[in-house]
Amino acid sequence: EVHLLDSGGGLVQPGGSLRLSCAASGFTFSSYAMTWVRQAPGKGLEWVSAIRTSGDQTYYADSVRGRFTISRDNSKSTLYMQMNSLRAEDTAVYYCAKASSGYYSDYWGQGTLVTVSS
Amino acid sequence: EIVMTQSPATLSVSPGERATLSCRASQSVSSNLAWYQQKPGQAPRLLIYGASTRATGIPARFSGSGSGTEFTLTISSLQSEDFAVYCCQQYDSWPLTFGGGTKVEIK
Lengths: 118, 107
Description:
The complex is a heterodimer of chains A (118) and B (107).
Chain A: E1 3-7, E2 10-12, E3 18-25, E4 34-39, E5 45-51, E6 58-60, E7 68-73, E8 78-83, E9 92-99, E10 105-108, E11 112-116
Parallel strand pairs in A: 2-11
Antiparallel strand pairs in A: 1-3, 3-8, 4-5, 4-9, 5-6, 7-8, 9-10, 9-11
Chain B: E1 4-7, E2 10-13, E3 19-25, E4 33-38, E5 45-49, E6 53-54, E7 62-67, E8 70-75, E9 85-90, E10 97-98, E11 102-106
Parallel strand pairs in B: 2-11
Antiparallel strand pairs in B: 1-3, 3-8, 4-5, 4-9, 5-6, 7-8, 9-10, 9-11
């Protein structure tokens, strides 16, 4: 059974940094691209970033490019998101998701809440 | 960036009735379109990919159609567990984009 466990969220001040993690199990992690999707309170889903199987290719939404860095450790079956220069508008639940062959997300973590506030 | 527009924003339907949800892309996404269901406090769940292929374990009452710029999700006979928010996503080009969602509520 596929399982994705998001962690690392919390309260951080504007301009601060946070690192999210997503521990994967139940599938061959190194064979699948992974994505991060976020959802601000009361709002819809926003795609944030994606990474290919080996980590050699990454993709970002314009809203986070240059501030967020996606990475993965295939030996640990773990996905990461390093978030720097955080802004109030980054406040959201962040979901990691397993990408299928076409980069749609067939399995999702439970989400981790990031709150950016002073 | 491809803009995904969903309509209506809210759909009021009685249990047992049919629900038809629309998703429009600002440019062609071929059949690279997915539908998700999300309930309050839960992560999204994949329903449909490739515009019309049901994901594993999704009941046959859910069906997707369309290609290019116009897509439809149909729920043939709404069950109590189907009242939720439905969202489309294009994965044809970067950045990936989601529609704003349609809330299906009990009439």
